[in-house]
């Protein structure tokens, strides 16, 4: 692509004798300035993307697998459900291939019944007001990492870890594009597109002019047109698809079955309504509930039913969206884009600040929630005080 700079000098600023033209310093200088400006921003966004992918990819910690003693004291029914945390190669393959069910809260959780022996690590879920859960109200669980998964986390087989709001594994940067790097990925492919479009226009203009004046063609410019078109089309496709996903507030993985996905959510029952859940109350709730903290394991099912957790109770309604609804869609494409790109024009175009959705300032849920959740609350009668 330095071809363009070379021609700006040899053709416009100090034209070679074969072109039979006068010097056009202004046009040549302008092309050189724009060219180096664009190449600088392409390289900068690529380096920013590379930095975030390698230094802060949003990997979730792996927990230690249970000891032999723990496994031995585990009730057989629970051992069966848990799927094991020390996976054999076959089990690893099974858990990975079933990730589409468990991951992303996409509904039916065929493998979603898996859960660990102890209940540690649940505090960061039940201290929120809403989180994605399995059908029984427990958070989604990764049996490979032996850990609960925050909303929208996905197990990536390439890095063998769960990744927060994973989008895809990108061979171009050798890592996972996720909530910490999706913004810079969009910026990178967008600037690739702009750079290629600029190169294509200039190469095509030079070619047309040379052909008109000399009747010949320039093989280097023809190669420039070919390369600019090829990479430009790649940039265009990637930019359009990435921006569309950001506008819908979806990841590439969530987009795979977005039209049929059903999200199961645990939504906190407001404290002033807890007394109404009493069986003697006249209110008949339309939903199942789960109360945290959960009883410590191992505990037989009868004892678990009578278990009264010490201290504050956190009661959640277990509700499901309709197929194709996205609880993270904020109801406006612009607001969804802001969650990824930022709140100012500078944020949108410069690879400096982190995405707002990766800052995790929202204490009520892992990600900001949209009108779908408001509607579910209203329909279930979970009115705020
Ligand atoms: Zn995992």
TrEMBL record:
Its EC number is 2.3.1.225. It catalyses: L-cysteinyl-[protein] + hexadecanoyl-CoA = S-hexadecanoyl-L-cysteinyl-[protein] + CoA. Residues 139-258 form the Palmitoyltransferase DHHC domain. InterPro entries: Palmitoyltrfase_DHHC (IPR001594), PFA4/ZDH16/20/ERF2-like (IPR039859). One of its GO terms (cellular component) is endoplasmic reticulum. GO terms for biological process: protein targeting to membrane. It holds the Pfam family DHHC. It is a multi-pass membrane protein. It is found in: Membrane. Residues 60-105 are annotated as: Disordered. Residues 67-77 have a biased composition (Basic and acidic residues). GO terms for molecular function: protein-cysteine S-palmitoyltransferase activity. The chain crosses the membrane at residues 25-47, 188-207, 219-240. Keywords: Acyltransferase, Lipoprotein, Membrane, Palmitate, Transferase, Transmembrane, Transmembrane helix. Belongs to the DHHC palmitoyltransferase family. PFA5 subfamily. The DHHC domain is required for palmitoyltransferase activity. This is Palmitoyltransferase. It comes from Aspergillus heteromorphus CBS 117.55.
């Amino acid at each position: 692509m330095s071809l363009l700079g070379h021609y700006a000098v040899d053709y416009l600023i100090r034209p070679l004798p074969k072109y039979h033209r006068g010097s056009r310093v202004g046009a040549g200088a302008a092309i050189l300035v724009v060219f180096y400006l664009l190449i600088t921003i392409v390289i900068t966004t690529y380096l920013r993307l590379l930095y975030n992918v390698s230094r802060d990819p949003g990997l979730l910690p792996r927990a230690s697998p249970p000891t032999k003693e723990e496994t031995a004291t585990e009730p057989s029914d629970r051992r069966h459900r848990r799927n094991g945390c020390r996976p054999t190669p076959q089990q690893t393959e099974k858990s990975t291939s079933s990730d589409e069910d468990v991951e992303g809260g996409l509904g039916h959780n065929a493998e979603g019944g898996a859960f660990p022996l102890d209940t540690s690590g649940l505090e960061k879920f039940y201290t929120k007001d809403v989180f994605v859960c399995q059908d029984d109200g427990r958070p989604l669980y990764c049996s490979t990492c032996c850990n609960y998964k925050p909303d929208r986390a996905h197990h990536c087989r390439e890095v063998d870890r769960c990744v927060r709001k994973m989008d895809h594994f990108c061979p171009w940067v050798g890592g996972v594009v996720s909530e910490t790097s999706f913004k810079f990925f969009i910026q990178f492919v967008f600037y690739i597109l702009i750079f290629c479009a600029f190169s294509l226009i200039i190469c095509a203009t030079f070619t047309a002019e040379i052909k008109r004046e000399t009747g010949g063609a320039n093989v280097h410019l023809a190669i420039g047109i070919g390369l600019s078109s090829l990479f430009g089309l790649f940039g265009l496709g990637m930019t359009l698809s990435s921006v569309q996903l950001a506008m819908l507030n979806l990841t590439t993985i969530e987009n795979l079955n977005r039209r049929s996905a059903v999200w199961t959510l645990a939504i906190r029952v407001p404290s002033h309504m807890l007394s109404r859940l009493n069986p003697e109350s006249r209110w008949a709730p339309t939903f199942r509930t789960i109360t945290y903290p959960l009883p410590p394991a191992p505990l037989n099912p009868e004892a678990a039913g009578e278990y009264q957790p010490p201290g504050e109770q956190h009661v959640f309604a277990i509700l499901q969206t309709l197929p194709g609804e996205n609880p993270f869609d904020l109801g406006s494409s612009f607001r969804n884009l802001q969650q990824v790109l930022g709140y100012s024009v500078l944020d949108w175009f410069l690879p400096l600040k982190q995405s707002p959705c990766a800052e995790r300032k929202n204490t009520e849920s892992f990600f900001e929630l949209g009108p779908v959740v408001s509607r579910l609350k209203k329909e279930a009668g979970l009115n705020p005080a």
